[in-house]
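Q: Joint fold for the lines below.
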Amino acid sequence: MAECFVAKASELADGDRRIVLAGTTEVGVFCKDGAYFGYSNVCVHSGGPACEGLMINRVVDVIAPDRTYEGQTFSDEIHFVCPWHGYEYDLKTGECVGDRRLKLKKFEVVQRGDDIFVIV
Amino acid sequence: MDMLRSEVRKLAGDDYTTAAHLAHASQQARERKYQDFLIVDVDSHHYESESYKEVFEFIESPVIRRQAVESAKRGGRASMLGGQIGYQDIGGRITRHELRKHDVRRHDQLTRGKHRDIGMTLEWMDAIGVDYACLFPTPMLFLGLHPQVEIEVAMCRAYNRWLCERILAAEPRIVSMLYLPFNDPEAAYRTVKDFGDRKGVVGFMVTSPRYKPVHDNAYVKTYALLEEMGKPIAFHAAYNWHDQALSLTNRFISVHALGFMWFNMVHMTNWVINGMPERFPRLKVMWIESGLTWAYCLMQRLDHSYMMRTSDCPSLKRRPSEYMREMYYSSQPMEKPRDRSILEATFKMINAETQLLWSSDYPHWDFDLPSVIYDLPFLSETARRNILGGNAARVFGLDSKPRKRIPA
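A: Joint structure:
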């Protein structure tokens, strides 16, 4: 395993991303709500750039206690979406939201001082 | 811990390019050595609305031409042509729908004498590993639902003239099956007569969302002409959210999943039950963008009913599925069940090795790559190459030598 420099923490705003190409491994590194996440940038579906699309909160149906439908809203769970076909992933776990048995490989992201590294 | 040399990049913004968006597709193409064999995409698209100003100049009626030009002046789609409700981009999640504007601007500056659509199409073709692409329009997929038949006829003729002159004549790697104004049978016949021998015209296409029975006697002379010319006819799926039954659905996923099978199921049923394969045995018929499960289902359904009701379809000498196995199917959107034996059975049912033709539907939201076929473990190398390009080369009369330039 080896460390790859990603960016200075001070250069990464909330919601920023970097794509790191280390040898033949591509990793998407996310900065969100003070935490960093690293995932394989190869979508489980067709191999698209999974980490390079939209970041968006999960859509939920609002079902009333009497089980009637009241509409939709965004929850607090943050997803990132493969831009090729819309496969959505849970930012916290890398799991594919449509079928959580499928997930992207997770990479550890570490911060030392102002430097962010991903372990590949 | 060791430090590793790496490259770091930000996400694309104004510097978005289709080639970069499809970089992983190019990597697949290199790894699988697509350079060594022919790949033909039998269903791909451009947005003809981006060229409406030019296309409208080809409208022959001065009254309709003026209507078209004026209706497009206020931006967006031309109101004379209308459109269909839909949110294919999944609320912005399919980012290329928005970002393609950077490609349009870049290619406007790079024309080198050729139309921008040629450069844009060749860019994704090379990125994915495609030698020839059969190019279709996008908004016009819904023109069969237009209440004014003369508008379909006028727009069809203008678009076909524009496409032949500005795109097909200028680029041998792009071909098309030209739009047929099916709501006007006489105009459909004239379209085949007038355009059948033009460069790059490999067949003719009927957009499936419409309410005309394909077995109507009014179309017989068109089918006869196509059969005589050796040009296939294709039925290209799309949806109609205003259809009485489909209007019961309340999400795009639903109208899309059903709608893209819906009309082709009706047209195929009519085609087979009314004995059209017996009357036109040499006419090649292709079914585009309905996926594969509909055919697998319909073969079984029609065979079951046929054996009990032969008097309903007396022209048939064989089971419906036997006729269906002699037709052609584009692969996209190829359903991929978790149990691969189901897909293998589907391939067997439709006689995929000779009758299936790979398609991407690029740049639409649910496009497929050649890997959907290439990576199937139950296919032989021969079957793989047939489906990816050999079958299309045979049907369309294309040279089998690869011409693509996959990015390094």
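Q: Anything notable?
A: Chain A touches chain B at residues 1-7, 16-23, 42, 46-49, 52-54, 56, 81, 83-86, 88, 119-120 (CB under 8 Å). Chain A has a mean pLDDT of 97.
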